[in-house]
Amino acid sequence: MADYQKLIDAETWAFIEKTNACYPEDTATFGVEDQRRIYNDMCTEFRVPYPVGVTALDRDYGGVPCRQYTIGGSNVVVMYYHGGGFVVGGLDSHDDVCAEICAASGHDVVSVDYRMAPEHKHPAMFDDAMVATRAVFAETGKLLVLCGDSAGGNLAASVSHMARGTELDIRGQVLIYPGLGGDFDKGSYLEFADAPMLTRDDIVIYRDVRLAGEEPVGDPSYAPLHDSSFEGLPPTVINTAQCDPLSDDGVDYEAALKAAGVPVHRVDEAGLVHGHMRARHMSARSSASFERIKEAVSVLGAGRWPY
């Protein structure tokens, strides 16, 4: 097992302790309504005001509730899919993150409030992500950048995989500590099984809650790593956290994209943990990571590849 005391710095420990004070480590075992209430309250503790000039409007796209952010004219829309294990989170939990991405990139951002488990099983969350993305493109005709963290990173990649050959003009994807369908019994899942912020046991719980029955086989709308082909995917930037059982999903996805000739760049954030974006205003490491995330969104939307 990893030596977290050596890997994680004092600022990140302060973030972990503040999180745990709001969100007990065994929260994933609670009833779903308690989980959501606790998670939303925790996110409120970290929320910051919008950057100057950003405005937001709640509206539906394709019947899916969304929140649209703008700071002026742009020919790019960033589709944002929030994290939360497909169980918790929503438009408010990642509200300030989306506003800051909008301000930094100048691009419009549409955050998708997809249906969640256990009330809705796979593929409901993917279906909503795809429907909303198609509706945004149909209405605006703007170039798309797909972005998401954790479970939302899964949805961003799933939309990319399933959108190949369709009308969607996806210029890139930014995947932030994504869960992409890796092997729970090797690598980072074992080395960081007891990591702060997200454990292997948590991941197993969230997987089981998401499923209506047996785990799908070979279904990239469920697990992008299970696809049979990675050709034709958009340029991809992956942000993995070192102290995260999911980190090897990003490693394996990077390797699959490279083998298929897809431009891909991955940053492994040393000493950081799952969910570290919320620490961006209290941790120098997380702040630097978020700068890289915002830059990735900006350059992909501009059609550049500086990596």
How would you describe this structure to a colleague?
Helix 9 links the parallel strand 7 and strand 8. It is globular and about 45 Å long. The protein is built from 10 helices and 8 strands. Helix content is 39%, strand content 19%. It has a single domain, classed as 3-Layer(aba) Sandwich (Rossmann fold). The chain has an 8-stranded mixed beta sheet with strand order 1-2-4-3-5-6-7-8, with helices on both faces. Helix 5 packs across helix 6. With 307 residues, it is an alpha/beta fold. The protein starts with a helix and ends in a 6-residue tail after the last helix.
Primary descriptors:
8 strands, alpha/beta, Rossmann fold, 307 residues
Reconstruct the topology from this structure.
Elements (H helix, E strand, L loop, with lengths): L3 H4 L2 H13 L9 H15 L8 E7 L2 E7 L5 E6 L13 H11 L2 E5 L11 H17 L2 E7 L1 H13 L6 E7 L11 H4 L8 H11 L25 E8 L3 H13 L4 E10 L10 H18 L6
Helix pairs in contact: 4-10, 5-6
Mean pLDDT: 97
Residue runs with pLDDT of under 50 for 5 or more positions: none
CA radius of gyration: 18 Å
Order of helices and strands: HHHEEEHEHEHEHHEHEH
